[in-house]
Each structure stands twice: as C-alpha cells, then as structure tokens.
Specification:
The structure holds two protein chains of two kinds. By secondary structure, chain A is mostly beta strands. Chain A is built from no helices and eleven strands. Chain B has a six-stranded mixed sheet, with no helix packed on it. A four-stranded antiparallel sheet of chain B has the order 1-3-8-7, with no helix packed on it. Classes of the chains: A mainly beta, B mainly beta. At the A-B interface, strand 5 and strand 10 of A face strand 5 of B.
Chain lengths: 125, 107
C-alpha cells in the first residue's frame, strides 16, 4: 500500500525559506517510471502544479516558480524535499505531495495516483 | 503554458442523473489528460488517466473521452458521494497545469 505524508512548518514569515518533506512508503523512488510530485492549493482556489522528481533524478519545475524551487530526493530515507525561497503571503496554501507514475518511462506523460493528505502553510508576519 | 478551461464552472444535478463536464486546452495535448475528484477537506483522487482509462477501484459510472484539445468527463447514475469539485490536468508539457475546476452540486 502506497502512502505519503507531508511535513513542515505551518507558519512562515515573508522572505523566509519553506522546507517541506514528503515521507513515503510502499514504493521505491529507484523504480523505473516512478516519481514524486508537489502540488499546492490556496484556500478556496484551484490546484497548482509545482515540481516533480523522477527515479532517475530527472527534475521538472513550474517555470513561473523555478527560480524559487528546489526538489531533491533521498532514496535511502524514502523522502523527497521541496524548498521554496522568498515566501510571500500569496504562497499560503495546502501543499500536497503525490506518487507519480510515468507508464512510458520517459517523456512527459504521467499521472498522480496516490496523494498525501496535505499540509497547510500560512505565510504571515 | 498550456491553458486549461473547464466548463461549466458549476453544475447542479440530481442523484441518478447523467452529467458531462468538459476540459478544453489551448493547444493539442494528444491524450495526455487526467481527471481528479476532490472531496471537501481531502486530497484529490485520480479518476481517469490518459483521457479515457479508468483508474483501478474507480466505479465504472465514471468515463472519459476526447483527444487533442477537447475532453469530457461523464458521470452516469450520479451517487450522493459524487458531488464534489472535479479538475482536469494536462501532463503534455511543463508546467503540468490544472483546470480551474467544475463544482458538481446537488440540485
């Protein structure tokens, strides 16, 4: 059974760096075709895709946030870490991580078939 | 970025109804389209992947169709647990954008 859990601070101040950890079980991030993605959702708004990392360390970022995001994996710890610099109140959201499956093992096509419950982050001074 | 337009933004229906909701993309994405359901306070759940493939464990009353730029999610015989927002997402190119959602409400 695949499970994922997000962890990190619930409150950060403007200009600070946010570090979120996704700890997972039930799969290995060294398995071909597997990845972990991050998605966020501001209160009452739609989902926004942020970043993903694949088994082969291929990393994809949202271009609008690319200069603020870094995604890394620790396969031995079954963790993926997302850092976001220079936080602003507009970054207040629930942040989700999800298991990504790329059935073709290459290219862009994938879907997110198991999600964590999400962690709420508020940016305020 | 590929723009995703879902319509309608909200939809009222009754238990037992059949409903369609659409997702239009700003450029062709082949069948690189997924549909998610999100119940209040919960994480999204994938229903349909690759435009028309039903995710394991999802009831067969959910179906997807389309390719290129126009896609449809159909729910037949609506059940009380189906009333929720639905999002489409493209995985053709980064950023892998979501639509703004269609909120399915009880009439």
């Amino acid at each position: 059974q695949i499970t994922l859990k997000e962890s990190g601070p619930t409150l950060v101040k403007p200009t600070q760096t946010l570090t979120l950890t996704c700890t997972f079980s039930g799969f290995s991030l060294s398995t071909r075709g597997v990845g972990v993605g991050w998605i966020r959702q501001p209160p009452g708004k739609a989902l926004e895709w942020l970043a993903l990392i694949y088994w082969d360390d291929d990393k994809r970022y949202s271009p609008s946030l690319k200069n603020r995001l870094t995604i890394t994996k620790d396969t031995s710890k079954n963790q993926v870490v997302l850092t976001m610099t220079n936080m602003d109140p507009v970054d207040t959201a629930t942040y989700y991580c999800a298991h990504v499956w790329n059935p073709m093992y290459e290219g862009d096509y994938h879907y997110m078939d198991v999600w964590g419950k999400g962690t709420t982050v508020t940016v305020s001074s | 970025d590929i723009q995703m337009t879902q319509s309608p933004s909200s939809l009222s229906a009754s238990v037992g109804d059949r409903v369609n909701m659409t997702c239009r993309t700003s450029q062709s994405i082949s069948n690189y389209l997924n549909w998610y359901q999100q119940k209040p306070g919960k994480a999204p759940k994938v229903l349909i992947y690759a435009a028309s493939s039903l995710q394991s464990g999802v009831p067969s009353r959910f179906s997807g169709s389309g390719s290129g730029t126009d896609f449809t999610l159909t729910i037949s015989n609506l059940q009380p647990e189906d009333f929720a927002p639905y999002y489409c997402q493209q995985s053709y190119s980064t950023p892998y954008t979501f639509g703004q959602g269609t909120k399915l409400e009880i009439k």
